[in-house]
Amino acid sequence: MAEQVRIENSGGILTLTLARPDKKNALTDAMYGKLADTIESAESDTSVRVLLIRGEGDMFTAGNDVGEFAAVASGKSEGSRNVVRFIQSLARCTRPLVAAVQGRAVGVGTTMLLHCDLVVLADNAQLSTPFVSLALVPEAASSLLMPARIGYARAYEMFALGETVPAKSALEWGLANRVVPLDKLDAEALALAQRLARQPAGALTATKRLMRNGEALVAQMNAEGEQFAQRLRTAEAREAFTAFAERRPPDFTKVA
């Protein structure tokens, strides 16, 4: 696990690195657990002033490990609650959250960015939320946050059609603060995190609490979670994940 999520605390900046590049940084239950533990612990650690989330390799994250989704859809697994702990820890986090994103950010890889206070994209970044394509529904309070951020029309297209949003559009729509060349990504994100670390921590926390209602976001997550769990066990979801495993397009027209 230590190899799949690396944690480093330096200069008041707690860096969380998704380090499973051979699997496109797809997030497993164990990885969600490590991320949640780290973010929750940071709330009581006075040495942590800023959290920085990044991914190793050529992709931020391919989202949830599809194999774990497929196991639930087929009835072979009851699923995990660590993903719930992770997204709720993001909603409740009072420390500034900075994200550095390169390549693809799929599903939760995009929705987690809605909880980050500063988002830096490499110029090759591509954001997507293909939940409906997998017969699922949005999560991480994105059904509330995404329309509020970019408008209903754009949000619906992202969710319902799984449209990919390139870095330039993401910046124009308000999903990011900066777009920089790939080789400048880590330096730019770290520089912003360092600037935040020098700011008065109490004032930053108070400002964030005024701007975001964490418990309201958790309530939305719970409502989404009920629908998500139900959808994951439907015939549509079984067809979606079977098609994925068989490397073919799903055919939802034959699903009763």
Explain how this protein is built:
This protein has 256 residues and is an alpha/beta fold. It has a domain at 5-180: Alpha-Beta Complex (2-enoyl-CoA Hydratase, Chain A, domain 1). The protein has 11 helices and 9 strands. It has helices at residues 29-42, 66-73, 82-92, 108-111, 142-150, 152-160, 167-173, 185-198, 201-211, 214-232, 235-245, and strands at residues 5-10, 13-18, 50-55, 97-101, 104-106, 118-122, 126-128, 165-166, 178-180. It has a 6-stranded mixed beta sheet, with helices on both faces. Strands 5-7-8 form a 3-stranded mixed beta sheet. A hairpin with a 2-residue loop joins β1 (5-10) and β2. It is globular and about 60 Å long. The termini are far apart. The mean pLDDT is 95. One of its GO terms (molecular function) is delta(3)-delta(2)-enoyl-CoA isomerase activity. Keywords: Isomerase, Peroxisome. It is found in: Peroxisome. This is Enoyl-CoA hydratase.
